[in-house]
Amino acid sequence: MSAIAGIINLDTGEEAVERMIKTMRLRGRAGTDYYREQETCLLQSRSKAAALQDTPPLALWDGNEEYVAVLDGKLYNSRDIRKGLEMLGHSFHGRTDAELLLHAYAQWGEDCLERLDGTFAFAIWDVKRKRLFMARDRLGVKPFFYKEHRGGLLFASEIKMILGYPTVKPELTEEGAAQILLLGPGRIPGSGVFRDIRELEPGWCGQYENGRLTLRQYWRLKDREHRENFEETAETVRRLVTNSILRQSAGEENMGAFLSGGLDSSLVTAVCARRKADCGGVLKTFSVDYENSDQYFVPNKFQPNSDGYYIRLMEQTVHTDHHWCVLSPEQLLNTLEEAMYARDLPGMADVDASLLAFCRYVKVYTDTVLSGECADEIFGGYPWYRDPEIRSREGFPWAQNTAQRIALLNPHLRSRIKCEEFVADEYQRTLRESDILPGTSGEEARMKEMMNLNLRWFMQTLLDRSDRMSMYAGMEIRVPFCDYHIAEYLYGVPWEYKDYQGKEKGLLRMAMADLLPKEVAWRKKSPYPKTFDPAYENAVRIRLTKLLETDAPLFALVDRKEAQQILNRDDPWPWYGQLMRRPQIIAYLLQINAWMEHYSVNLVY
């Protein structure tokens, strides 16, 4: 749980370093240290808990070689790697992952990535060769942004850290504007939206040497023949899921778990509670709710029932120390802008803001929680996996509203962008990247495309949300379902297995059902809870109405008349995913305006 950043072949004077450190403190709050030599500086800040383990950045002298590393994340197979390195003659001063990473790189070079199992983003500076090596975990749990700038390179955990460098300007091109309105809050894989700010994609690594950046993909989802029957498949799923939860909770005495009463968080809770009980303890669990939710909750296609009954059933069944965080409309409204700043971009509106406020509540009890996030992408849980109408349509299944989005663009911007083509090109590019064995049936091939689309796009938006909101609150969310072993295996599993008994995530339910009360194990999927309180919608409506009477920055991107119509219109499709309806669309526009003001975004088209 930390922030990393670097300045390569650029000015590393006090002003430059201090400005980047200032932004890093929002992610790692126990102080920042750095390694500096001439025109190179590597920086790392850590949380209070992580700062007790070692003082970053960490250096290693190996004969005539010297390496310096900055690392954000955790390795879950560190014990095995350490044993292998010790057998090869390596000795260690401590037990940190950063030290282990340096020894692994000194021994195997870039091939060390094949041995690392965890969630990580790191950079290693080869002092002798003046060469930087950087890498990101296979599924993109930890972030890594970079920018080639004036003959050098900047990299960081978050966009705000790169924008903190004195000569970097917050510029937005036509493509960036198109992403905000035509794809947002999703974004093109590898894009940081701001001009020339890029993100190292999941499963990629790179080298920067002599002013040249070279990137390569070291991991990708590959299709394979599935030879296990259903019972064997269910057994493998149970083992993979249980092992991932246990690995990610190992050694964390005070770790908690989010508990929504749904299948995924309940499975994480059940496994962790059992482990905790075996050690004589009680697991802390946490749920979020909203004032007046009993009064205003409205069942719908995407959210068929509220969570309270199922949460209490789980609490009583596995015996957790449960805590409720109840948020008011005012808290959501007052956290909207902070949530945007935590993400560095307009996000999922109050869905982001509620998680940020929730994490601040949880932080009082623990620094780390496990979440059930990412199971839906991998096991096919979302409605668009199973709705034949959506599944057969062209375009991103979680945003079937391109026409609505195009209408919202400022007319000048709309005239400069081939909107339908822009969205279609990104969609088709991802389909082409999907690895599918020859001879795969039409439906089976489509479901693999759907999984790849979800992992490359929708899951990244949710991982951004979990990472940025939790880190901004000074804690960490871990996502054991987002494990590359699980993803690799499930990609090859036939859809008829995943859709067992016609239930979303039927395979996962069958594999793990005995761990949960039957009512929870077979409960219809319900997404992260949002408020239905009309006081919240009224509050965001008032704010947007006031903006409509001004020359706010928002209207450089958004058509004023169309924004006015949104105040009173219900569109047939959510803006993004399942949760962003009219109140969230209004709040998203407020976030865009706050983003343009806060970052002083300069339009360069």
Task: Round the mean pLDDT to the nearest integer and report it.
Answer: 93
Strands of the widest sheet, in order across it, are 2-3-1-9-8-11
Fraction of residues in helices? Answer: 40-55%
Secondary-structure content class: alpha/beta
Strand content: 15-25%
Secondary structure: number of strands: 19
Q: What best-fitting shape do the alpha-carbon axes yield?
A: globular
The biggest sheet amounts to: 6 strands, antiparallel
CA-CA gap between termini: 38 Å
Radius of gyration: 24 Å
Polypeptide structure, described:
- The protein is built from 26 helices and 19 strands.
- The chain is α/β, with parallel strands linked by helices and 605 residues long.
- The strands form four sheets. Strands 2-3-1-9-8-11 form a six-stranded antiparallel β-sheet. A six-stranded antiparallel β-sheet has the order 4-5-6-7-12-13, covered by helices on one side. A five-stranded parallel β-sheet has the order 16-15-14-17-18, sandwiched between helices.
Structural topology:
Blueprint: E1 2-8, H1 14-24, E2 32-37, E3 40-46, H2 48-51, E4 58-62, E5 65-75, H3 78-87, H4 97-108, E6 118-126, E7 131-136, E8 145-149, E9 152-156, H5 159-163, E10 171-172, H6 174-183, E11 198-199, E12 204-209, E13 212-217, H7 230-249, E14 256-258, H8 263-278, E15 284-290, H9 293-296, H10 308-318, E16 321-327, H11 329-343, H12 350-363, E17 368-370, H13 375-379, H14 383-386, H15 388-392, H16 402-408, H17 411-416, H18 419-433, H19 442-472, E18 476-478, H20 484-492, H21 495-498, H22 506-512, H23 518-521, H24 534-548, H25 560-566, H26 582-598, E19 602-603
Parallel strand pairs: 10-19, 14-15, 14-17, 15-16, 17-18
Antiparallel strand pairs: 1-3, 1-9, 2-3, 4-5, 5-6, 6-7, 7-12, 8-9, 8-11, 12-13
